[in-house]
């Protein structure tokens, strides 16, 4: 089941990596920058969690999983703000569902 959660999170990260028009306002750019930074951190912690579980260290895996969730939530919230600025309403619903998944992912171990 944990492997399914890892697979889902990697899918979610790839789904959220959409191309953006960087010629927009500074606020939009700031949200997108925050999204990129935090989604990369989330991915780093997901990789660490997967490695820890492969090594049988479930405590470390859970720690990394919660950290990935924290950064995934921050990233997704920033991406929602950017989508609202650009009027990407069709994307917002998917991102809001992603927030629920990130939260559930973080709560899984705790």
Structure write-up:
The chain is an all-alpha fold and 110 residues long. The protein has a single domain (27-107), classed as Up-down Bundle (Methane Monooxygenase Hydroxylase, Chain G, domain 1), CATH 1.20.58. Helices cover 84% and strands 0% of the residues. It is built from 4 helices and no strands. It has helices at residues 2-16, 26-54, 58-86, 89-107.
Short structural summary:
With 110 residues, the chain is mainly α. Helix content is 84%, strand content 0%.
Helix-strand blueprint:
Elements: H1 2-16, H2 26-54, H3 58-86, H4 89-107
Helix pairs in contact: 1-2, 1-4, 2-3, 3-4
Measured distance between first and last alpha carbons = 16 Å
Number of strands: 0
- Percent helix among the residues? over 70%
Question: What's the number of domains?
Answer: 1
- Choose one word for the global shape: elongated
Please, how many helices? 4
Give me the secondary-structure category: mainly alpha
- What is the C-alpha radius of gyration, as a whole number of Å? 14 Å
Features of this protein?
Methane Monooxygenase Hydroxylase, Chain G, domain 1; 0% strand; single chain; mainly alpha; 110 residues; 4 helices
């Amino acid at each position: 089941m944990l492997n399914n959660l890892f697979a889902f999170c990697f899918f979610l990260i790839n789904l959220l990596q959409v191309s953006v028009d960087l010629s927009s306002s500074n606020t939009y750019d700031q949200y997108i920058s925050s999204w990129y930074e935090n989604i990369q951190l989330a991915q780093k912690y997901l990789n660490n969690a997967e490695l820890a579980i492969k090594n049988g260290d479930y405590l470390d895996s859970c720690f990394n999983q919660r950290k990935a969730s924290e950064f995934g939530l921050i990233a997704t919230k920033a991406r929602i703000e950017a989508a609202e600025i650009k009027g990407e309403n069709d994307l917002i619903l998917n991102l809001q569902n992603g927030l629920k998944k990130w939260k559930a992912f973080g709560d899984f171990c705790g």
